[in-house]
Structure formats: C-alpha cells, structure tokens
Design goal:
The structure holds two protein chains of two kinds.
Chain A lengths: L36 H4 L17 H13 L21 H7 L2 H4 L11 H18 L3 E3 L5 H18 L6 E5 L5 H8 L3 E5 L9 H7 L4 E6 L12 H10 L3 E6 L11 H4 L3 E4 L19 E3 L11 E4 L5 E4 L16 H37 L16 E4 L10 H10 L6 E2 L8 E4 L7 H20 L1 H6 L11 H7 L10
Parallel strand pairs in A: 2-3, 2-4, 4-5, 5-6
Antiparallel strand pairs in A: 1-7, 6-7, 8-9, 10-12, 11-12
Chain B lengths: L7 H10 L30 H14 L5 E2 L12 H7 L2 H4 L11 H18 L3 E2 L6 H16 L3 E5 L4 H11 L5 E5 L18 E6 L9 H10 L3 E6 L17 E5 L15 E5 L12 E5 L5 E5 L6 H4 L12 H37 L5 E3 L8 E6 L4 H10 L2 E2 L13 E4 L6 H26 L13
Parallel strand pairs in B: 1-13, 3-4, 3-5, 5-6, 6-7
Antiparallel strand pairs in B: 2-8, 7-8, 9-10, 11-12, 12-14
Classes of the chains: A alpha/beta, B alpha/beta.
Amino acid sequence: MPLMGDRLAAEPTVFERSRPGRRSATMPALDVAAVDPAEALPGVELAEAPPRLPEMGELDLLRHFTRLSHRNHGIDVGFYPLGSCSMKYNPRLAEVAAALPGFRQLHPWAPDAAAQGTLALLADLERWLCELTGLRAATFQPAAGAHGELTGLLLIRAYHSDRGDARRTIIVPDSAHGTNPASAAMSGYDVVTVPSGDGGLVDVDKLEDLVDESTAGLMLTNPNTLGLFELEIERIAAILHRVGALLYYDGANFNAIAGQVRPGDMGFDVVHLNVHKTFATPHGGGGPGAGPVVVSQRLAPYLPAPVVVRHDDGTWAWDADRPKSIGRLHGFHGNAAVLIRAYSYLLFHGGDGLQTMSAKAVLNANYVASKVSDVLPLGYGQHQPMHEFVATGKGLKAHGVRVTDLCKRLIDLGYHPPTNYFPLIVDEALMVEPTETESQETLDDFVAALRQIVAEAASDPQLLHDAPQTTPVTRLDEGRAGRELVLRWHPRSG
Amino acid sequence: MDFAPHTDDDLAAMLAAIGKSDLADLYRHIPESLRVRGALNLPPGRSEDEVLGALARHAAANTPDTVCFAGGGAYDHYVPAVVGAVISRGELLTSYTPYQPEVSQGMLQALFEYQTVISELTGLPVSNASLYDGGSAVAEAVSMACVATRRNKVVLSAALDAPSRQIVRTYGHPLGREVAVVDHDDRGTTPAGQVADDVAAVVIAQPNSLGVVEDVRAQAEAAHAAGAKLIVKLEPTAVGLLATPGSQGADLVIGEGQPLGQGLSYGGPSFGFLACTHDQVRRLPGRVVGQTVDRRGTRGYVMTLRAREQDIRRERATSNICTNQTLCAVAALVYVTWLGPQGLRELAAACLSRARHAAARLTRVDGVELAVSGPFLKEFALRLQGVDPHAVVGGLLDAGYLIGPVVPDGPTAGAVMVAVTERRTAAEVEGLAEALADVLRTQRRELVAAAGPAAGPAAGGESA
C-alpha cells in the first residue's frame, strides 16, 4: 500500500467500520450520586438497548472522515465555477472570528446583558446591509436564501393584508430560481410566470399585461439567471408600484452588483442576501448559510420578531413587542456564527473593497465568456453578461454529446462542472460563474479545458460519454436510487 | 481590499481582451441613474489583523464565561475536538450542495450515514439530510401531516417550546392553517385526550419544554384514533435512556440538533432533523441521499427523490428548501460516532444523575420548588415564589451563573428552566444554589422595601 493510500479506494460506511465495544467518548467522573434510571423514571418506557450507533476508536473515526473528505471537491481543492453559487475563496479569518470563545460559548437564551457584543455586531451588520441594498431595516432569522424568500413573501403578504388588500398572485420570470415559485406557493400565493424576451430580459410588455390589482408582487433576480442586468428595471418597478404591488429581490446574484447598484434604488422593497455566496461564508456542502432579509420602511413593521434595538442608555436589546410582526421563522436568532463570518468579510473589504470585488467578478466572467463563446455561444448574446454567463452546448448534439457529458469530462480535467440545464429557457445550458478570486491563469486553463472538450466531442465523443474516469465512482444510476430508495445503511445493504 | 489575485498587468490584459477601458466600463450599460456614485457609507477596509482585533472586542463584550445551566433547546454539552477537526477540512467546508455526485461522494456518504444515525435515534426508517433548525422542522412536519391527511388544523402541546409554536403559526397563517394549543397538566405532561377528526397532527415534545417526559405511546394512540399524525419534537440525547418515539408510534420525529456536537454560538448554526415512516417519503422536504451503483457496479450515493424539490417541481415542490445545514449534520454524525451507543447512554445517565442532584439541592433554597411534578431527565422547571424571574436570571448572571429561559406562557408561565449537562459539577451546583439564595434574598428585600412598611416579613435564606 502506498504511503498516501489510494484515494480512489472504496471507503466502507462508518457502520461497517464499527466494532462492538470500541469507543472514543470519555465522560467526566460522576461527583454526585448515580441515579438508577428505572427508579428515577417510574412509569416511563425506557430503551431496551441504546440506539445502534457506530462504535469506533478516535483515530479510525478521524481516518474515516478524512478519507471521505478526499472523495469530495471543494473550493480549496480547485476551481468551482458553479453558476448562481458564487463559489469564491472562503477566507479563514472568518472562521477564526466565529470561533472566538465570546461568540462560540454564548447561549441563545442568555439575557441581552450577556450578549452586548453580538447585538452590537448585528446592529452594525444591519446598517451595512441597508447601505449596500439601499433599504432601511433587516432581520437575521432566515437560515438560508429560500428561508429569506419565504420571510420576504410573508412580509409582502402582511403589508397587503394590513391595508385590507387581499392579493393572490406572485409573478416570477420563466428564468427564475426554483425556490422563487416554491416560496410563493408556501406563502399561499398563486404563481404567474412572465416570459423572457428575445434578449433574455423580462418581456416588459407581457409583464404589463399580467400585472393587475390581484398582483401582490414580482420576484426578480438582477442580474437575472442568465447573468444579464435587467436594463428596464425602473420601468418594471413602476408597473408593479402603479397597482400597489411590491418588488422582491432574490440576492443570489448580488455578487455582480455589490457596491455598484443598489436594489432599493432600482425600486425593490425587499431583498434577501445569500451571505454564503456574496460574503463568502463557507457553503459546507449545502449549508449552513444565512439569508438576512432587508426591507424598505413600509415593510419594517412586519419584520419577524424580535428585532435588535438600542435603548437610550446605549445598551442593545431584542425587542419582541412588534404587534404587526409576521412572527418567528427560527427557533433561536438565526445562524449567528455565519453572520459573524459575513461581518468579518465586510469589515475586511470595506466599501471600496466590495466595489472592486464585484467589478472583478464581472471582469472574470466576461473574460471567460469572450474566450469560449466561439465554441460555446451565449444562450442570449445581445447584452453583456455580469458576474456569470449562460452558454449553450446545443452545438454538441450534432456529435451525440450532451452538456452533461461535457461536464463529466471537465471533472476528469480537474474542474467542478458549471451549473447545467439551468435556466430552463436555454437549450443545453451551461452557467459559468468564475468569481473574482480566481486568477487569470486559472481562467485560461479552464478555457483551454473547455475548448479541448469541445474538440474531443467531435473527434472522440466516447471519451465524453465515458467520463468521469478519475473519480471514486463513475456515473451513478440515479434512476435506481429513486426506485430502490436505500436511504439508510442496513446490515445487509453493503 | 479584496481577495482577488489580479495584478495591474492582469487587469489591463483582461480588460483589453474584452474590449473594456476600465472596471467601471463593465457597468456602463446600466442606467446611470441607478449606479452608485462615489463611496459607500461603510467603514474602510482593514487588514486581517485589524479585523480580528475588532471581532475580538465584540466577542469580549459578550459575557459567556458564566457557568451554563441554561436550556430551552440548546445545552452546554462538551463538543469533542475531533468534530472541529473533521468539519474544518476544506474539501467538506468549501463544497457546495452535491449536485455532481462523482466529485461529492465524501459529503454524500456522510449524509447517508447521518440519515442512518437519525433513523436510529428517532426509531423511524427514513430521515432527510437536515433542515434549518428544530423550530422550522416542526413547521415542515406539520405541513407534511396536513398534506398527508388533507386536513388543515393542528393541535400543539403548550409544553412544545414557544418559539416552535410561533413558527408553526407563521408558516401556517398564509395557508389558513388552524392552530390549537392544549395545556399541560400539573405533572407537566400533555393529556392524551380525544382528538377531533379534523385534526391533521398532534405535536408534542419529548422531553417537553418543561423537561418532562411525555407518554408518546398514549399520544400516538389518541392521534391515530382520529386519523391524525403524531409529531414528536425529540431532544436527541434523551434516547440514551428513553425508548425512541418511532418505536412508540410517532409518525414524524423532528428536533433541534444543537445537543449533537454543535456548540452554542448563540443558537446558530445548528440543524433540524426530520424522520418519518416509509409511506411519507415522497412528501419529505429538503435533500435526501440514496444509495445506488455506478456503471461498474461500485456502490455510490446520490441526492434522490429529486422530483419533490424546488428546482425541478417549482411551485408544486414539497418545500422551498435548497441550502440547509449540511455541515452541521456532518458534525452531528461525527459527534454521535464519537459517543457510540454506550457513550450516548452514559451521557444521558450522567445528565440525569446531575440534574436530579441539582434539583434536590436547588429546591432546598427557601422559596424554590419544582414547577411541575412529572419525571425529567436533564432539564427541569423551577418556580421562584414572589419574585420577578427575569430579575433573578439577571442577578444570577452577575454572580456568574446562567439559567433560563423563563417559561413565557401557559400554566407554568414565570417558571425558570435549569439544565444540567454532563459538564456541570457538584461544586458548580452548590455555587448556583448559594447564588440563587443570595439573589432571592436581595430581590425580596427590594420588593419589601418597594412595598413599604405594611408588607410582610422578608423571606429568604435557606431552610437546609
């Protein structure tokens, strides 16, 4: 066995590594009388045996998870141009900040007097997010972007119903993230889809036809999911506001415009920000993130309670006395330690740093687009892309190759594939978001890899169909996973 | 200051390649009226050293170095060093949702193992790959039950924590969901009375928000007799001693994952878990990982049942959940593996012994009694007679002890929760008891002084 081990070798599950009687845990010696559970809990149904958890020594435990980590691609491993996800460098300074004992050891129900540092930090963060969005107040309860969407739509709903105005529909573009219509449905709204026009922007004339007194609001990502700035956003806002409807800004693409253009100035009333995208808190394989929601003055009374306030004596406190609040969305205060990371990121950048950050993100995306668009044309090429672009791989079909195949081949060349088959309005879509933290050499290498694969699609399509070959597993049978539904380990399932 | 690596030469070459004169040129197609002119009203950028200095000042303005007897869903359990060692690995920390399974087998396998662990802890066969937190998990479970039963009314125990009840109302309000609350009895347990036949689900907590062990089996029978689902919010370390709710008939078991290796961090991030019976699998919210094989027949893992999810189903999805709390779920898996079955049992037994000791000692303080009489594990409710409980919590904080939360509503409103983990020593309990006696003496003296000479004699001190 080579010293480094075989990183492609199968790793048994933690249950298969388990041996009866092995353990890692140690407990402090008991310095009080031991209580017999059966005597202390009369009439209570006790477990006959403890749950069948794995039993491992600590070194084997650590090796198991280290081996699993070897089977995973992260930003630290290599380029990760996953569109709509802003997979940029996750600065480690933020990890150090969040782990400071003063933050880490703070109990969620500690009295406000014990949490003055965190409350002051959240108040600063609220002020900064208001400045960046051009809005007036924020909540930190939402744990992720979609949680923020739900919050924002409930705010819109509360605003209308407070005015005795029952409205039924939320409009979303056909290019919207799937979370938008799903959040609207959870908020009790009917979803109306507005098509994109020829240039890939919202068809504003069609929007005008769809908007009426039953419209509660419009959800929009700007730049949109094609990476294009909605140039007629002021007209769009006017159309919505004319009938008393509100505008919701999906902040998934905020990395394109942070410090350059503000949603509030565009006419948006409510914004969620994905701090695990724009402000580089680590995504952790699917969270934890945070989705703070920032609103205009007219929506502030409805924010989830409690909110951070400052008393006359200068101390900070949670204020739960919010009669118009939509209520709670989180069992504690939201993902506080993620927000501390975002705060650190903002403090490091400052206002001018955020402006160069977003501009370089746009530069990197346009640079890559310019180098590949002759072989992978933009889905909508009329307007300049912002921080990401959507190309179409439909030309590969002539060789019997799909964008999936191109993506799997990219893996063999060392890259995490871009987002693909989204947005749905581009055939064989490939959504590339390089982010600002990648160097020109990395981008040039990636461009060369894409061009190589497009050439291979013509010369050796089987190479693409067989990809990936360098990974612990080849392409997986997703149909079988859905039919057989093996969702947990069983002693005989191995 | 930013983290971009571009040199001036890089910028010049790249701008030239795309035909732009400068970075500002990248925004010139946007209407000028919308573009930010000049500097933002934000602090100037700082060095890493300065940033961490500023953060350290904020952290120092908190006072977490108290002895923590606080509960209410978050507990001061020890988090072993190996948890941090695993979840700080960059391959896991800096990965996205595993859309590309071939390069995400590490995270997918870990989630498959997590689902297995949650299945074991809850006693139900199916778990998803995590939710935001325990509170939103209750709301998601209620939604599942309402869809399954085609009913739109839920009954919540008053001994389900107040934030969870509020979240159920927040999520249910736009859907016209009716929410009823049933009071607990003098024991602190929820009566398993008759359930109306228009109820989608009964929701209880085990142990409940007063720390008391509920009769899950009786609740399940009552709910099922009406065709309703029983949803149990489980404090997961409890099953080191208690029978799993799934084995007692619960249809959905959810909970707050904080006790499983998460640390406190002011309540986030941790995670929510959700487990259910087989028949509800297609109504699950969020990610689910399944086992399959690759083209060579090698075992592997993928996100499955994807047709439930928002990016495929859009407005007809079972939930809008996308990003959730994956890394926290992995931390829980590591912690539970560190514990093992015997460790979990020892943990729960140690908490029970220490909590019983603490309850006996604290109720020897004059004017302090258990608020309810039912059996408890690591957490119990104290009634503090004749004082403002919030003032007592504040007084104890000054003395270096944290208790709480104060029960906000229901028949036990004003009682104060005390939680005792495996970390709390006999000496710390003694210190809390003495501080509590002092604070109560002071409080009562102030109340008497405020009430004037006509008021009764000052109570205080210890009867022991």
